Amino acid sequence: MGAAPQAPRTRVTARARDLRFDAGSLSLNLVATVGRRPVGPVERMGDAERLAAWCSGVGLTPAPGYEAEALLRSLHALRDAAYDIASSLLDGHRPSPASVDLVNGLAARETPAVRLELTPAGVRPAPGGDLLAEDALLSVVARDLIGLVSDASRRERLTMCASAVCRMLYLNPASGRARQWCSMRRCGNNAKAAAHRRRRAATAEG
């Protein structure tokens, strides 16, 4: 990628550290665990508590006994590779071979097959079928990224928030109007408020 754009300096608030689950795909939700990338990165998933909250938010359940620090390191590495690859679809840079190799290697690992069981009350998912060992959890995320890159319609919907501070990657909805902001409640309202302040200042100066 070329030189990183210069974003205005802003305070790192508690809201800036909030986990985001609205990027439109599992792998992009992982990328969104770093805010304000690439100029002033804000870590949103830096400890075991945040890791558990993220897994819960995206519907992934690590198997009991997992090592949080090890899983965090692996997810952070996958996150960097996913950002490298996904952002290349927007700015045309060539992703690192290491990023591609990491995603391919993780995606090749087997995930457990989901199972059903028959009970007196009827059929239901077998208990524990959603529990994922570390390799399986990483594989699910890597496969999601490959699915995004492989799907022309999803690639076309990939965009970057227009906020110079945010720059979050997300998928626009498949139907309806494309969004300029990752969230109207967040960056959209901030942009409207800033524009309003500029107009008032210009009027006052006039």
From TrEMBL:
PANTHER family named in the record: BLL6575 PROTEIN
| TM segment ranges | none
- Species source reads Streptomyces erythrogriseus
Q: Where is the Zinc finger CGNR domain?
A: 157-200
Entries under InterPro entries matching the protein: ABATE, ABATE_dom_sf, Znf_CGNR
Supply the name of the protein: CGNR zinc finger domain-containing protein
Read off the Pfam families from this record: ABATE (PF07336), zf-CGNR (PF11706)
